[in-house]
Amino acid sequence: MAAISTLLSALALLCHPLIVQATGTYQEPEAFVREVFSGVVPSPRKLWIKPELAASIRDILGRDLGVLRIGYWGESGRSAWILEEIGKEQPITVGVVVNGDSIEILRVLVFREVRGWEVRYPFFTDQFRGATLDAAGKLDRHIDGISGATLSVGALTRIAHLALLLHRHSEFAKPLGDLRQ
Amino acid sequence: MTPGPWRKWHSTTGIGAAIFVVFLCVTGFLINHARLLGLDRHYVSEEWLLDWYDIHPKGPPVAYAAAGNWIVRIGDRIYFNRTELPERSERLLGAVSVGTTVFVALRDRIVLLDGQGVVVEVLRGTEGVPAGMRAIGIAGPEGLVVRAAHGDYQPDLDALTWNERDSIEADWSAPADPPAALLNKLLRLYRGRGLTLERVILDVHSGRIFGIPGVLAMDLAALVFVFLAVSGAWLWFYRNGQ
Q: Is the minimum CB–CB distance between A71 and chain B shorter than 8 Å?
């Protein structure tokens, strides 16, 4: 009985850090932007959500973005976005860097749900590295899900798609001719 | 052991449990397909059920007036006149208007609205909004000012720079009492978005909607199902063994 009690206590202690770290802020959005621009953050830009872009966003998210313009940062064909999308009930804050026309970095910055936090780990987010939009404007790859985190997986997939779309409408997008090469 | 008494108990218990089985199957099916059926997006509006769940805002509403509009926080919901804004926050610090734009200060961001309450933009720490915001105001011709933990700030919203000053004389946004009719309307709106049908079905399925007695009743039903399974299996093996 004592051995069982010890084993259960050890298991609880092992699990506790995982539970504590599951929700919360993994990186402040400001710190993410500073990191991806090596400490020299360019002046923020504004992207107006015009009707055509709004319609494309609605196709991706199933809803409007909720703002008329969105801020981003960029230089030399590279843009950084701080985007939020709801998993089950709470928004997940994600930082995305698009370079050229593909995703360079996708990182979960703030996670507020009690389930689905496994999406923060590189084994999942690395799937988005190099992702781009295909000729039909869809994400060019299938993203493997995580059992028990379906809604979080869906949210991050939508964010990746959205970031690539927004980049194409930003000042740092490649001309369409270059994309076809 | 003869099957006679067991068969009688199995039959009697089975008839009594049948209604629970049907009930749990129906609610279980609905729970499994809640998202497809939109049950997580359908909100309960029946007052008696909202009262049963004690769906009431924690704490009194907080309201600010700006350019003839009312910005009201109830719970973590923010309303612009009678429209709920997409942003949520446990703190509403103030609201001011500059030109045709209404600036609403929440705990960690400033929401820019046009005259109709459409969200133009949300400014956060990434856009330089100072940490520890306490108040928002207007400093004469100099425009928008923000009081934060480490000082007062005046933004250049085009360049997104924030100029820190030790202290700025400003007309700081202060809470006010909105019209009673508006407040009552907003309270009804708040309650009407506080409880999803999915939540109710989950609690009915588990018995939790009736608290501990409901949960214990479902536990008892589970034991009855175990009895039916064991007795049914025993009767089957007994019959086939003969």
A: yes
Q: In this structure, what token pair is assigned to residue B58?
A: 């924690």
Query: Which chain B positions have a beta carbon within 8 Å of A37's beta carbon?
Result: none
* DSSP class of B142: G
Q: What is the nearest CA distance from B117 to chain A, expressed in angstroms?
A: 11
Cβ pair A116, A148 in contact under 8 A: yes
CA distance A133 to chain B (A): 26
Counted across chains A and B, CB pairs separated by less than 8 A come out at 34
Query: Left if phi > 0, otherwise alpha if psi is -120 to 50, otherwise beta: which for B56?
Result: beta
Residue entry with tokens 């629970």:
B20
Give SS3 for B180: helix
Query: Which residues of chain A does B120 touch, with a Cβ-Cβ cutoff of 8 Å?
Result: 67-69
Which positions ≥6 away from B95 have C-beta within 8 Å?
B64, B65, B66, B69, B71, B102, B103, B104, B105, B136, B173
Rounded to whole angstroms, the Cα distance separating B200 from A40 reads: 51
d(CA B240, CA B242): 5
pLDDT, tens digit (0-9, with 9 covering 90-100), for B24-82: 999 999 999 998 999 988 999 899 999 999 998 889 999 999 999 999 999 999 999 99
Q: Which residue of A has its CA nearest to B86?
A: A66
Nearest to B126 among A33, A67, A69 (CB): A33
Q: Please list every residue in chain A whose beta carbon sits closer than 8 Å to the beta carbon of residue B118.
A: 68
DSSP H or E stretch at residue A70:
strand A69-75
pLDDT digits (tens, 9 = 90+) for B105-151: 999 899 999 999 999 999 998 888 999 999 999 997 768 999 998 89
User: What's CA A171's distance to the chain center, in Å?
Assistant: 20
Whether chain B has a CB inside 8 Å of the CB on A31: the answer is no
Full 3-state SS string of A2-44: HHHHHHHHHHHHHHHHHHHHHCEECCCHHHHHHHHCCCCCCCC
Q: Does A171 touch chain B (CB under 8 A)?
A: no
